[in-house]
Structure formats: C-alpha cells, structure tokens
Automatic annotation (TrEMBL):
Record key words, sorted: Membrane, Transmembrane, Transmembrane helix
Membrane in keyword set: yes
Pfam family, any one: DUF4191
Name the record gives this protein: DUF4191 domain-containing protein
Transmembrane segments: 33-53, 59-78
Length: 233
C-alpha cells in the first residue's frame, strides 16, 4: 500500500511540475495569462455565488461554482498554452514535424522524407485517410518536392490516396496551428489492416534504399548519375 501511495504522490508531483513549466513557457509569450486565468476563475465562481444567494442556496452553488471555475480555468489555460506553443514554433525548421508527432493514435509519421539544399522539407503521415505529405519551406520550391514525392507514392502504393499540404500563412496553405485539424478532417478510406500494410510497404522501401550496396572506387569514366536520383534526407 505504501508503495502505491508513493507512486501516486510522485505522479501528482510530476503533473504539478509539468503544469508549472507549461505556465512559465506560456507566460513568456502571453504576459496576461495570470490575469486572464484569475478573471475567469473568480468571475465564474462569483456568478454561481450570486445565483446561490438569489435562490437561497449559496453553499451548494458555491461548491458547484468552484468546480466549474476550476474547469473553465483549465480549459482557458490549455487553449492559451497551445496558442503560445504554436506561436513559438511557427517559422522554425521542423515545426510541422513536431505537430505531426503529436497528431494522435492511428497515425504513423516519418519526418524529412524529402529535402533540398535550401532546407525545404517534406514529411509523411500515414493513417486511415491515406498518405499525407506535409511540406514546409518556400511555397514555390516545395511544390517540386511534393510532386516528386507524390509521384513516388503513386508508384509504390497506387491503391492508397495521397494528399499534400503546404504549411504556411499564404493562400492555399495551412497554418501550423490548424495542421492537426486539417489532417483529421480528411475522409477515412482505409481500414486498420490496410494502414498497417501501407506502412509495411513504405518501411520496406526505406530499408531497401538504406541497404542498397553502392559501388566502391571511382566512378567509371563517362558515367553520369540519373536525373531522378535519390534526394538527400
């Protein structure tokens, strides 16, 4: 019993520490977070207390109002913390990959499946919606990367739908904070076994490419690399 209580206390301490760290991170980007949370909590509790006095049950409404106030404060804190996190990530290399890593169960993500010298990059996510290619970088350059990767996907898994998304704030692009929602809105057309089979085929392709033997020594005179050679990852 003592061990269970110790583990529970450690877990609670870990949660409190995580909340404190999240608050500190959020406060760096949102200076008014403390005032907002206090206003939400006190305001919600005040409304329920006022109703309680009006109907003659201030204690019951006060307790219920306290629970609702805590819930409302937690919801507002979560949303502002998420907004602050996206604000700090936006424009940073690999931000889209970080969002994809936290998209949720049922999705398998592979960062940087294609990249060019300018550090424009394409990530891949596989789920019941099919294959989603997510690009971040210069909108004009990433279109070339997306087209090449989409063509490759259509050759390997021709029976699986392939979507493409460009992360950004321009026309036809998806904002970073809306990336997860956008992927979840794609229609689900694959079953669980089909998703697994698709991942297996893509994984086998990756293993094949990484294990492909390369000739040693200098390149034979007059030999040229094919134009469709593999890109750096």
């Amino acid at each position: 019993m003592a061990r269970k209580e110790t583990a529970a206390d450690a877990a609670n301490a870990g949660r409190l520490k995580q909340i404190a760290l999240t608050y500190q991170m959020t406060r760096k980007a949102d200076k008014k977070i403390g005032l907002v949370l206090a206003a939400v909590g006190i305001g919600t509790l005040g409304v329920f207390l006022a109703i309680g006095f009006l109907i003659g049950h201030p204690v019951y409404l006060g307790i219920f109002g306290l629970l609702i106030a805590l819930l409302a404060t937690a919801i507002v804190f979560g949303r502002r913390a998420e907004r602050a996190a996206f604000g700090q990530m936006e424009g940073q290399p690999g931000a889209a990959a970080a969002v994809l890593d936290n998209i949720g169960r049922g999705w398998t993500t592979t960062p940087a499946v294609a990249m060019n010298r300018s550090q424009d990059v394409v990530h891949r996510a596989v789920g019941k919606a099919g294959i989603v290619l997510v690009a971040e970088g210069n909108p004009n350059r990433v279109k070339t990367l997306l087209a090449a990767e989409k063509k490759k996907m259509n050759r390997i898994v021709a029976d699986v739908p392939v979507h493409d998304v460009i992360v950004g704030n321009g026309e036809g692009q998806v904002e970073l904070k809306k990336l997860r929602t956008t992927l979840l809105k794609f229609p689900r057309v694959l079953t669980g076994p089909q998703v697994t089979a698709t991942n297996d085929r893509l994984r086998a392709l990756g293993d094949l490419m990484s294990n492909m033997p390369l000739p040693k020594g200098p390149m034979p005179k007059g030999m040229k690399l094919p134009k469709g050679g593999p890109r750096g990852r």
